[in-house]
Amino acid sequence: MNEEFDVIVVGSGITGGWAAKEFCEKGFKTLIIERGRNVEHRGPEYKDFEAPWELQNRGMPEEELAEDGHYSTLRKKGHLYRTDALHFFTDDKESPYSFPENKPFMWVRGHQLGGRSLTWGRQVLRWSKKDFQANANDGHGIPWPIDYEDLAPWYSYVETFIGVAANRDGLETLPDGEFQPPWEMSYAERFISENLAKRYKDRHLIIGRSANITLPTEEQLKLGRGKCLARSYCRRGCSFGAYFSTQSATLPAAHKTGNLTVVTDAIVERVDYDEKNKRATGVTVIDANALKRRQYKGRAIFMCASALGTVQILLNSKSVSFPNGIANSSGALGHYIMSHFTGVVASGDVQVKEDKFAFGRRPIATYIPNYRHDKLADADFVRGFGFQTTAQHRSSISPPAKRAGIGIEEKENAGKAGPWRFSAFMYGEILPYFDNLATLHPTSKDKWGMPILHIDAEVKENERKMIRQAAKDIEEMLEAGGCSNIVVNTTPDSKHIPLGKQIHEMGGACMGSDPRTSVLNEWNQAHDVANLFVTDGACMSSSATQNPSLTYMAITARAANYAANLLKKGLM
Amino acid sequence: MLYVVSTAVLPTELKNTLKLTIFKSDASFFNAEQMTLVHDIADIIIPTTSTPGASDSHSAQVLDELMVSWASKSTQQQITSFLAQLNEKAHSISGQEYLLMPRENRLAFLTEIDRDAFKKTTSPFLVAYKRFKELIFHIHYTSKEANTNFILVPGGYKGNLNWDELQAIHKRQYL
């Protein structure tokens, strides 16, 4: 097989779907290649209509999976290791990766059509001007070659299509966008938000910005998408198409054009390179089942295989010109691996009258955006952190499953409403460190013959200082917000913080203006190979503190528009 | 050594006195005597009151199914050993097999085990009890019977409701 397309998109997750949609709608014959299996929208793999008692094994994965060493990373994530959506996560026994023994890295993947767009957290937050200027301002990492203004119209473009339920908060550090009606704060969250507003000018508790539709547009209805009905079973797949995913939104839009070809169960082994013309010619894939190799040809290649997946493929794409991986003349490929990290988890009882209740399962939390972009007098670090927070429902007395107590009295108490308890999880910005690195393992290969990825990354002193500050800050904010019984848990300096745990891995093929120090230019185009683009998380030059998917999508749409113009002009 | 009484042959009068539900045939994993034991322990730790208990949510039967579909061999072994040891302990303390103890004595016996189990302990028996208890609680509290207010499709979220408003929503099963 040697098929030829205008554009080849590698990966079908949140950015791959966007790239495919954009090129298809612009009239280009587009191939999307997914390494995992096909997953039908509203198909049998969606478990969103199963009540707790209907889930396989009441939600508990078979014990033998753990005993045989399956899903070792996912098991550490705890709440994701359940039968309601286990099939949407990759078993790292089948697809291994490695890390130094003293620096475990958590690489959570979703090898199926739609990738992690099926299971993502749906918090969609714009970056601000301060975030794009951070590298240039404090000298860490490679300065971004784009600024907020470059991306702002693309944020709007993407938000309009995906549907973002959010409040217009008017914050410079978290710009507003094209919003549908926001989710409601609970009584307790509102109370804290108002108290914080009285105390601080720079710290705000806002409702999260969610890629769950609250007021469907005509375009969304035509794609078969409906309003979110507050089930909060999103990661099981949504039969209403209420949250944005490849399956619910970009793929149907692309299919409608007649220009899309989808190939699943095909693992991209390498980007093929023509030494003479200095162009990528296509990709070589390994059939995931038959293990045979075949090639696809394309005029432009969009890498959307997830940050580390893309780095793995690019590093494995060796040629005479690029003995250390395609588009790697700078030597930066694989470097500056980043991930949001937490080191502080806090909670407190909200001091409000206990006569209010909540109903429904809101699909988004509340949020305290980063308020420490600028180095304040009390800070001994650069960059900052925010908090993912919630007090969505009243707490309740848990049954004594894991403590002493049996019989009538314990049973009668279980489930009784307790106080509103507010929880906060720090999300910190890791600096882009050159030596936080992903490489190909020198000897180990997976069952398909691909060298496995070795990830060597850690938080350093700047992040440890942030954690200490975040612990002080959140305690103060919980007090100011009106909480009692405050508990602040901090990860000690001696304990390794596994990067990747927030499933926000970034970097490895960073953007920059200088081809000597970066992999991609301001259009996400490889400095070295004009028809090769990287628009997933690998392209990020810094991590900021906001959940990154919205920025990936905006960057992808912008790059696709640029590449489409080049294709139309015959420049690729 | 197993002390499980052959419950199937107990006289009806005694069954009533003991307040036992007797399983007469083997289930998928547990035999009849073990099922009787599992059902009784579950019923004592989560009793039926004005709301359903573990027997109403068929926790013993679900555990039996999970032992086949979910449990590893080591867990299967742990649970069956626990059941056998429970009888041994009952016998050594009261001179009676567990199932022949009056219900109030069975409750007192389990209460003591429960209290000891959540102290720092490495006793395999107590560790197994904790595991058994956790499974019964998980099964019961994920059951339809224990989740009468569960609504699969709430229709929306409201975070500032008084009690009457909440009850009205629950009554119509949708926001």
3D structure, described in words:
- Chain A is an alpha+beta fold and 572 residues long.
- Helices cover 23% and strands 19% of the residues of chain A.
- Chain A has twelve helices and 17 strands.
- Chain A has helices spanning 14-25, 63-67, 72-77, 129-138, 148-162, 187-199, 218-222, 246-256, 307-316, 408-413, 461-481, 549-568, and strands spanning 2-10, 30-33, 206-207, 260-263, 266-274, 279-287, 293-303, 344-350, 357-359, 366-368, 385-390, 394-396, 417-428, 437-445, 451-456, 483-490, 532-534.
- Chain A is globular and about 75 Å long.
- Chain A starts with a strand and ends with a helix.
- Chain B is mainly alpha-helical and 175 residues long.
- Chain B has one domain (12-147).
- Chain B is built from seven helices and one strand; from the N terminus they run ααααααβα.
- The longest helix of chain B is centred in the middle third of the chain and has 22 residues, at 73-94.
- Chain B is elongated.
- Chain B starts with 11 loop residues before the first helix and ends with a helix.
- The model of chain B has no long low-confidence stretch (mean pLDDT 92).
- Chains A and B meet through helix 2, helix 6, strand 9 and helix 10 of A and helix 3, helix 5, helix 6, strand 1 and helix 7 of B.
